[in-house]
Specification:
Length: about 90
């Protein structure tokens, strides 16, 4: 994998997936629908990472930026998928 954009996107997808996996509730309320959404998000991130590892030649600038921004959003929410779904406070 010699494409630097592919390496950036792959790292972003893997880091976001690991951050969601490492989320701890610490007394937060369990919501079944949010748990399923977190699982689906984890599957999508893992699938994207596997696809990039297999076929890295088709990665462009916009996919790398999208992956980096998505990873930034996940890290800013500290892996809490419910916080990603909440509307922003005004």
């Amino acid at each position: 994998m010699h494409n630097p954009l592919a390496i950036i996107a792959l790292a972003a997808y893997i880091l976001a997936a690991l951050r969601i996996l490492a989320y701890r509730r610490d007394g937060a309320r369990y919501r079944h629908h949010v748990s399923w959404l977190a699982w689906l998000l984890l599957v999508a991130l893992g699938g994207s990472a596997i696809e990039l590892a297999i076929n890295a030649k088709s990665v462009g600038l916009f996919e790398a930026v999208r992956a980096a921004l998505f990873s930034l959003f996940v890290f800013s929410a500290r892996g809490n998928v419910a916080r990603l779904l909440r509307p922003a406070a005004e």
